[in-house]
Amino acid sequence: MATKTFSLPFLLIVCIFSQLSSTFGDPSVKDLGQHAGYFSLPRSKSARLFHFFFQSRNNSSDPVVIWLSGGPGCSSSNQRYISYLKISNLIYVDQPIRTGFSYANDSTDLRHDEDSVSNDLYDFLQAFFKEHPNLAKDDFYITGESYAGHYIPALASRVHNGNEKKEGIVINLKVTDISLVTATATWSAG
Fold first, then answer.
1. 166: number of Cβ within 10 Å
2. Distances 71 to 94, 160, 171, 172 between C-alpha atoms, Å
3. Which among 164, 172, 177 has a CA at the least distance from the CA of 139?
4. Neighbours of 132 (CB within 10 A)
5. Each residue of 90-120: pLDDT tens digit?
6. b or e along 7-31 (b: 16 or more beta carbons within 10 Å of the residue's beta carbon)?
7. How far apart are CA 109 and CA 66, in angstroms?
8. What is d(CA 29, CA 146) in angstroms, rounded to the nearest whole number?
9. Which letter does DSSP use for residue 28 in this model?
10. pTM to 2 decimals?
11. How far is CA 106 from CA 30, 74, 87, in A?
12. Tens digits of per-residue pLDDT, 139-171?
């Protein structure tokens, strides 16, 4: 496993900048509503999906959007669609397992098809909305790029089926068609 090392001068500069930023009233990471972390998956032995979550800069009741990247195996966390934050709460997920910072210690947790990936993402969303219950009632959109065109309809179907069967927290899914998902990604981001 590769580790990153930083020089002492670099770390001092970061600490000084952080202190100056808070001294002069610049927003902190907490103020900006940014969260990152892992959720474990109940259908796995040891898998953890990593995510970044950015709260809307406009209104906490703005829609929740999950951004999926393609590849397969491309991390969603390298995307920087800041304009989305003006109109939505945005989730990036490193998926499938062993992409980006997501990991598993058991090879049986690796996924090789859209159904398995969509089950993992559904479990992720259940954990996410359990941690953020105030967002569960908000409109929910699935979007992405490239190979995510395979995952988007699979996840939309999984969410729809989970809602119908009352398997957990009801997710207020607003898009169930891949063509509509593509259109959603281009709605006015101001």
1. 8
2. 11, 25, 26, 27
3. 172
4. 17
5. 898 988 888 888 889 988 888 888 888 899 9
6. eeeeeeeeeeeeeeeeeeeeeeeee
7. 22
8. 30
9. P
10. 0.73
11. 34, 20, 39
12. 999 988 777 788 888 999 999 999 999 999 999
Residues 6+ apart with CB under 8 A from 147: 69, 70, 71, 72, 74
Q: Is 114 left (phi over 0), alpha (psi -120 to 50) or beta?
A: alpha
Q: Which of 135, 136, 145, 134 is nearest to 168 (CA)?
A: 136
Which residue is associated with the tokens 């090789």?
Answer: 112
CA 167 to chain centre: 21
Q: Do 104 and 47 contact (CB within 8 A), yes or no?
A: yes
Tens-place pLDDT, residues 15-25: 444 444 444 45
Domain ranges, ordered by start, for the chain: 31-182
Please give the Cα distance from 93 to 138 (Å, whole number): 19
The CATH homologous superfamily for domain 31-182 is Alpha/Beta hydrolase fold, catalytic domain (3.40.50.1820)
Q: How far apart are CA 134 and CA 129, in angstroms?
A: 8
For the beta carbon of residue 75, count every other beta carbon within 10 angstroms: 18
Report whether 72 contacts 147 (CB < 8 A): yes
CB 103 within 8 A of CB 97: yes
